[in-house]
Each structure stands twice: as structure tokens, then as C-alpha cells.
Amino acid sequence: MRFINREEELQILEQEYKKDTSSFVVIYGRRRTGKTTLIEKFIENKEAVYFLATLQNEKLQIESFKNVVSEVLNDDLLKSLTVENWETIFKYIATKVQKKLIIVIDEFQYLAQVNSSIPSIFQSIWDNLLKNKNLMLILCGSLIGLMYKTTLGYTSPLYGRRTAQIKLKPMNFKNFKKFFKSLDNLKLLEFYSVIGGIPRYIEIFDETLDVFENIRRNVLHKNSYLYEEPKFILKEEIKDPITYFSILQVISQGEHKIGKIASKLGMQTQNLTSFIEKLIELDILERKVPITEENPEKSKKGLYFIKDNFFNFWFKYVFPYQNYLETGKYDYVLDKIKSDFHVFESFTFEEIVLEYIYDLDIPFHIYKAGKWWDKDTEIDVVAVGEDSILFGECKYWDSLVGVNVLHQLKEKAKKVDWKKDKRKEYYAVFSKIGFTKELIDLAKKDKSILLFNFQEF
């Protein structure tokens, strides 16, 4: 896998490595985000033990770990020894360490599944054997819920031991672009709308093909890599996926209020809450409120969205049509996708604008940015500063955007009460391909009107 971005994460690891004392780092995040690639890059040219845990018998894993350690330390004596537990190996390591040694246990959550006492065992190992030694321990895992429970949560025996933690997230659009050599922003947006910023998925999509042929080959075909990917990921994290799958399908179809989601599923709202909370914990769902809300946690205007682009695409276009796909009716499903894909990618466009808003030439310092809505009005972009506010409209049209869009935006802005009598207002229009001459001329005269063309991002 090509190594792109992750400079901040590498810097954290290097800082931990350069400490005179020991360090204990937890790396976690959903599958395919490049955690192992990050670790491989970091341990290049360093003395390091890398061990990939599995769900096999614990005794076999102890033996395998012992052999890996003996190879790195070039220690035939250790290799010949019979070792019955983890403590014995780490005690041996502790006596041998002179220069800095990195110990990586990848997919650590599998050890905890094989033996529920593993967090307590590693607590004892850290406290009694490693804490004062010249080494760096890295525990890495992909099952977010289980990694939190075993290493980060308050109830974990390892709680409070870590010296740093890294939650590896999908790439944003800026870094997504770096994976491709020759694509323009419009084609990149098509790809990003489907696969998001997951490095493994990015590698699968072929930039010489259009988005729909990529979807056919890599998502819709029943033997393709991505065909059942969300099923695999969710089934590892949750025991009873049926309700979770139904929630995600309803949200992908456009229902975002918890009451309406519950109604679609024939459930009471209070019975849905625990499922929603679990999906948020797993970083699959997110709750959003209008950006001007003073107390977001208590706001009654919260809406729920699927965070991951591919999950959103899959639950909207693949999951509901698997009966067709299983019988090879790929063209039927692809036609469904083509019929409203432009609308689907327009929502991704709005999210990219919110990502870029902090880097654009806005005439005030932005404190926070997001969307705003009430019962009957929605504003795509609202950015607030100390006493200034920007209202933005995103139009992913194949035609030039004109002054009518600006006028409509100004009308909608009147409904936002934030510092209404003492604020400085700006208006931004974000377009797929450009603006009419009339709107361009108006923006030249009025400095409160800002125009941004996506192809220039």
C-alpha cells in the first residue's frame, strides 16, 4: 500500500520513540484505514518486534511470539526454550534490552477474545516488567468497540497506562487526491463519493475506468472485494446485526430524525437509542446539530448521518438490491445508481466544502463551520467567527450558477438568529463548474459576496 499523508501520526510515534523513558501507544480505528502500513513505515530501520495476533489457540500464539522475538534479538537460546505464558517472554526481553526496542502487537483485540484476562496480564507486564525499560510498546487493533473496552476504557486494567493514543481516521478529500496522478476534481469527487478515504478501497479503484465501471467490477459483482465488506466489518463488531443493518439502510435512504427512523422500522424511539449509540461508538454514525446551537448535546434538532462514504453508498445502493445482484442483474442495479448518482454526490460535495472552508479566502477567522436547519429551511454551509458569519450555498450543477441562488441564500439567512443585530454577514456560493457573468460582476462590486469554483479547489 502506498504511504500517503499520516505525517501527524508519524510525528506522534517518533516523539514517543525518542523519549528517554518507556512509552506505551495504542493505535486503533476501523479496518482498512492503514494502521499496519503506518506501523510498518514507523519501524523502518528501527529494531522492532512485530507480531500479528489471531484467533488461534493462545499457547500457539505465545510460541509464535517467542519465535518472532528470538529472530529479532538473534537469540537461539530463547528460541529453544519452552515458554508457557506471556510474562516469561516479556521478562526475558526486559533482561536483554539495551538500545531502544519497539514491540508491536497488531490486532491486539484478538488476544483478548482468545483470553479475556489478556488486559490484566498486559497490565502486570507493563507495571512490573516494561514500564522502566528502554522500550516502546504499541498495541494496535481494528475492532473499535473491543479495543476501547480492552485498552482505553475506564474499566480496562490498562486504563491510564498509555502514554499516547492514535485513532486513525479515513483520509479527507485533500489527501485522497494524492493517491491519483491524473484525475480532475470532478472525477475524484465521483470516486470519493463511493469509496471515501479508506486507503485499501482507494487502491482497488482503477483511475483509467469511469466510476460506474469501477462500481460494477469492485462493488456490485458478487465475487468482488467490496461486495460484502460492510457486512464483514459490522458482524465482527456486533452480535445481532439485523437491527443495525436496518437502521443504516433507512438513514442511507434519507431519514435522519430518530423519530422517523424508528417509525420506518416499526420501533419505539426509546428502543432505538441503544442501537444508535453503539453505531456512534463504532464511528459509523454521527449526530449533527445546527452549527449555531449553543448546547449541542442537549439540542432537540439532532440528526443522524452515516459518516463513512462507502457505508453510505453500500446501504443505499447495494444492500437493498442484493437479490438482483446475486442473480447477476448488475445492469439493473447500475441503472438505479446512475439515475440519481448526481444527487448522491452533491451531498459529498457539501461535505468537501465544509472540509475546505477553513483554507479558503474568507475575510474573518472561522471559529466553527457546519450546516444549519430548522423545520423548513436548510443552509448548506454556515461558518461563524467572533462577530462575523458566512452563509453558503452549494450547487453541484452542470450549468452556471446565477444571482437567483444568491437571492435565495440571503432570504434563508434571515432565519438564522445568531447575533442578528450586530453581526457582519458574508455570502458564499460554491459551484461545480462556475458562475454567470451577472453574478461574477455583482461579486466584484460587493465584497460580502464570495464565489468558489470546485474545479479550483
Structural class: alpha/beta
Query: Any idea of the CATH topology of the domain at 7-167?
Result: Rossmann fold
Over all CA atoms, what is the radius of gyration?
25 Å
- Spans with pLDDT under 50 lasting ≥5 residues? none
CATH class term of the domain at 7-167: Alpha Beta
Residue-averaged pLDDT: 95
Q: Describe the biggest sheet?
A: 5 strands, parallel
- Main sheet: strand order: 2-3-4-1-5
Features:
457 residues; alpha/beta; Rossmann fold; Trna Endonuclease, Chain: A, domain 1; five-stranded parallel beta sheet; 21 helices
Structure write-up:
- The chain has 457 residues and is an alpha/beta fold.
- Among the domains are: 7-167, 3-Layer(aba) Sandwich (Rossmann fold), CATH 3.40.50; 357-456, Trna Endonuclease, Chain: A, domain 1 (3-Layer(aba) Sandwich).
- Helix content is 47%, strand content 15%.
- It contains 21 helices and 12 strands.
- A 5-stranded parallel sheet has the order 2-3-4-1-5, sandwiched between helices. A 5-stranded mixed sheet has the order 8-9-10-11-12, sandwiched between helices. A two-stranded antiparallel sheet has the order 6-7.
- Strand 11, helix 21 (437-445) and strand 12 (449-453) form a beta-alpha-beta unit.
- Helix 12 crosses helix 19 (330-356), helix 14 (241-252) crosses helix 15 and helix 15 packs across helix 16.
- The longest helix has 27 residues, at 330-356.
- It is globular.
- The two termini are 26 Å apart.
- The model has no long low-confidence stretch (mean pLDDT 95).
